[in-house]
Specification:
This protein has 123 residues and is mainly alpha-helical. The chain has one domain. α1 crosses α4. The longest helix is centred in the last third of the chain and has 24 residues. It is globular, with a radius of gyration of 17 Å.
């Protein structure tokens, strides 16, 4: 069973890269592109819908919600686009790095920490 879960995790990793590529593809519908941006931003964000420190429930978004969103988006991408993007994802050795997204996430965290410090300093 553990081997099957590892294979599924590898498949999802490849699909996330394929989703990234599909989001840039000209034949992907605009609504699907929006869903891809939302899902990938959530997948790479350190902020969770349900915080991980909550016992059992904390990992539901990582184990159920995120894979379900990925599977839904895969169903919405045209077959020819998905096939092409999966093939391209397989052949990519260097995965894309999005420094802008990383910067935005860091900025959000720094802003949140600053606001908390200011709030605590006033009390």
């Amino acid at each position: 069973m553990l081997k099957k879960l590892k294979q599924k995790a590898q498949s999802i990793k490849k699909d996330i890269l394929a989703l990234y590529l599909a989001g840039k593809h000209k034949d992907t519908p605009i609504i699907v592109k929006i869903l891809i941006v939302i899902t990938t931003a959530y997948a790479f964000s350190p902020i969770d819908l349900i915080p991980d420190f909550i016992p059992v429930l904390g990992y539901i978004d990582d184990l159920i919600i995120l894979p379900a969103a990925i599977l839904l988006i895969i169903k919405l991408i045209p077959d020819n686009v998905l096939k092409q993007c999966r093939e391209e994802a397989e052949s990519m050795e260097n995965r894309p790095k999005n420094y802008i997204a990383a910067g935005v996430i860091i900025l959000i965290w720094l802003t949140a920490i600053t606001l908390i410090i200011i709030k605590l300093a006033k009390n």
